[in-house]
Amino acid sequence: METSAVEKQPETTTEAKEAPSVVRTKRIMVAIDENDSSFYALQWVIDHFSNLLLTTEAVEGGILTVVHVQSPFQHFAAFPAGPGGATAAVYASSSMIESVKKAQQEASTALFSRALQMCRPKQIRTETIVLEGDAKEMICEAVDQINVDLLVVGSRGLGKFKRAFLGSVSDYCAHHAHCPILIVKPPKEMTK
């Protein structure tokens, strides 16, 4: 009768032990721009999550995705023309458009260079993404497209009045991103 008790064990127990465990790589996204508060947030992630992001021989670490969103270039500007106050659209030349795009590309390269230098000492696996459009909307779209586990953004410390008129990327992302979000506020001496 003892053998029948052994025979009644479910077969799934053996299969569960043999099946390889699937561990999805963790992905943390940090949004950066020209403000020091975004680089403070990046450094905060490096200091506090480097063990989660570090890849060793035994463990596949996570990925730190650094994203920068460029404002789209407006190809025209409206200027008042004539005595009646009518406006006319003036279109930018192709050389001006190329010049602006080159300047944006150089600015993004400089930002990413700074970010990668910050990550290098901890040997964090990092990828960079440049997007174009409205920063808050593009960040939330990127979160969905690449399945981010945690979004980290800096806070510029805008007051209620400025935030109401200028809008806040961190505030928008906190309400619209489909993942946990961490808003890192810099120390008070940085915001002055």
Determine the N-to-C terminus distance: 80 Å
Instruction: Give the biggest beta sheet.
Output: 5 strands, parallel
Give me the CATH architecture, please: 3-Layer(aba) Sandwich
What class, by secondary structure content? alpha/beta
Q: So how many helices?
A: 8
Following the backbone from N to C, one meets helices and strands in this order, namely: HHEHEEEHEHEHHEH
Strand content: 15-25%
If you average the pLDDT, what whole number results? 79
Q: What would you call the shape?
A: globular
* Cross-sheet strand order for the largest sheet: 5-2-1-6-7
Flag low-confidence runs. 1-20
Helix content: 40-55%
Task: Tell me the name of the CATH homologous superfamily.
Answer: HUPs
User: Could you say what the CATH topology is called?
Assistant: Rossmann fold
How many strands appear in the DSSP assignment?
A: 7
Describe this structure in words.
The structure is a single chain. By secondary structure, the chain is an alpha/beta fold. It has a single domain (about 20-70, about 110-190), classed as Rossmann fold, CATH 3.40.50. Helix content is about 45%, strand content about 20%. It has helices at about 1-5, 10-20, 35-55, 95-120, 135-145, 160-165, 170-175, 190; strands at about 25-30, 65-70, 75-80, 85-90, 125-130, 150-155, 180-185. The strands form 2 sheets. It has a 5-stranded parallel β-sheet, sandwiched between helices. Strands 3-4 form a two-stranded antiparallel ribbon. Strand 3 and strand 4 form a beta hairpin. The chain is globular, with a radius of gyration of 24 Å. The termini are far apart. Mean pLDDT is about 80; it is low at about 1-20.
